[in-house]
Amino acid sequence: MKGQSTQVLLIEDNLGDADLVRLRLVEGKSAVDVNHVNRLADGLASLREKSPAVILLDLNLPDSQGAETFRKVLEMAPDVPVVILSGQEDEALAIKALHQGVQDYLVKGAISSSSLDRAMRYAVERQALLRSLEMSRKQQLEFKNQFLSHVSHELRTPLTAIHQYVNILLDGLAGEVQGEQRDHLKTILRSVNQLGAMVRDLLEASRAEAGKIRLSPRCVAAPDLIHAAATMMKATASEKGVGLEVGVDTTLPVLYADPDRVLEILINLIENAVKFTPAGGAVTIQGCAAAADTDFAYFSVTDTGCGIAAEAKPLIFERLYQDPNAVDSSRKGLGLGLFIAKELVSLHGGRIWFASEPGEGTTFSFTLPLYSLAKLLFPVVIHEGRLREAVVLVKVVLRPHPNAPRGRWKDITQRCLEALQGCVYLDKDLVLPPMAATGSVETFMVVASTDLECANVMMTRIREQLGKVQGLSGAGELEVSASAVPLAEAGPGQSLDAQVHKVAEAVNEIVRSVLGEAQRLSAATKT
Amino acid sequence: MANSKIMIVDDDPDLRRALGLRLRANKYDTVNAGDGYSAIAMAYKERPDLIILDLGLPAGDGFVVLERLQKSDRLSAIPVIVLTASDAQSSERRALQAGAAAFFQKPADNAELLEVIRATLPQMARESALPS
Fold this sequence. Notes:
The structure holds 2 protein chains of 2 kinds.
Chain A: E1 6-11, H1 15-27, E2 32-37, H2 40-49, E3 54-58, H3 67-76, E4 82-86, H4 91-99, E5 104-107, H5 113-170, H6 179-209, E6 218-220, H7 222-240, E7 243-248, E8 255-257, H8 259-275, E9 282-289, E10 296-303, H9 337-347, E11 352-356, E12 362-369, H10 373-381, E13 382-383, E14 386-387, E15 391-400, H11 406-421, E16 429-431, E17 442-448, H12 452-467, H13 472-475, E18 476-485, H14 496-515, H15 518-524
Parallel strand pairs in A: 1-2, 1-3, 3-4, 4-5, 7-9
Antiparallel strand pairs in A: 6-8, 9-10, 10-12, 11-12, 13-14, 15-17, 15-18, 16-17
Chain B: E1 5-9, H1 13-25, E2 29-33, H2 36-46, E3 50-53, H3 62-71, E4 80-84, H4 88-97, E5 102-105, H5 110-120, H6 123-129
Parallel strand pairs in B: 1-2, 1-3, 3-4, 4-5
Helix pairs in contact in B: 2-3
């Protein structure tokens, strides 16, 4: 590197060692510009200002010792190569540091100008190489995503044409269709739908891999989702002569999950179960509270199929894996369903697993988080170690005009929710997660740590801000009201948790009556 | 009373024809446009009661069409249903924000599409479309 000097940050508290390193640097072939600091804090401050070409780091500093030192440096400047200056006694630690992202180490006392020069040069080169590898990996992933997105878009157009024209024929829009012709057309339609599902899965899997799936969790009743999934899969199952049974615990508390994604998980698992179950068999879908963990609900999909062979078990959730012993070998699919299900369950913070004996069927099980009002309320209604003086529930009802377009309404209510979030204090108010829509009227609730009088200020703010939401005034009406949440006196020795639970119960009581679904929610809302 | 008039905007002639067939079978009149530019011109000329709009179009894509419809005093009241092969995750929200009344990904379920068309048509036009 001629003409331009290498910027070196030297973090070393022993002045003798520092001078020696400086001397070796000056003796070396390349021009260097050394910035020397004694303490880690000063080193980190300097890194915040500008990035040197390389960092020479002593591990034992007045304000930080050992592994902690290089961890902090790597965290602050992950892209700058680090060479450790170690003593004889901490060489083992220096070696460990190499595994955690440090580029090299030199043992003090054995440093020559050529070894120092080479260590620095190699450290810089290796770091650059690593960075470019990481970049190209990211680029490849991005390219693959764009490619898949493009391909699936192009595939959908001819698919749509086939789908449309087959339906036109089947519906008799182009003349009467005879018995056998009808059967053939139905086969075409079924195959086209399969193809469409594969395109969808391909896109979904690549999105999951790139971490691009976003959840919109809501409060949602699990039995509704299970029944919806079963209804959607009914035709496929009965076509194959496979029974579909549903067993739901109706007292199952409300989930806090993205309803569309939960449906997707269930459908993927049911589809898979039906595929591996011979005619005359049955698929059972169950949902209940998880015995082991009260924060989660437990779901299972059980089939009476061929089971999973021991050698296939470790691979079952892998992308593109297909059981070579599949009964229904004519139509294998892409092998993405279970992979997608697994990704969606873990995005929710749940677990997915299976139990299977060859010949005796398989049960896939997964867990999803339950909605816990008390957990959400705790940081809001507890202030400085005690319950707040007063708590108010503010209700915001958005009622669409009778002929408001459906799609636009959904978007308007979403924007209202975002505006509502901006009307509250995060540390003392809580916008309750939206209830799964029970119709086009949308109700949002805010638990506010204030009394009714002060709640008026918030209500005025909400009316103002939501009134500004684009499209609302034309499409629907806004109604804001508030009611006090009755707070019981804390009994002697009553824990904060117990007090918050009381508040949560009181809030739920009001929410239930507001939603007019007292029956279902009383059984289903967990406090 | 006259049937409601629906304008189909799609660059694929096969899809225009199929959708046209389907809509006419349900007592709607249809007019077609194959690109963004003629979609706007046709909308001025024909004054449809509803527009079914593809997003990937030559000469001004669907978002451009949506924007120009919204900006026009005479056309902004016409409801638009987006029907596209584009990915829902990337374009649904954007289309609704740009003023679309509903979003469908191709291939759409015909029954559902027809139901949304019925619900979305302006009141007057809808009444006239009811079977007498």
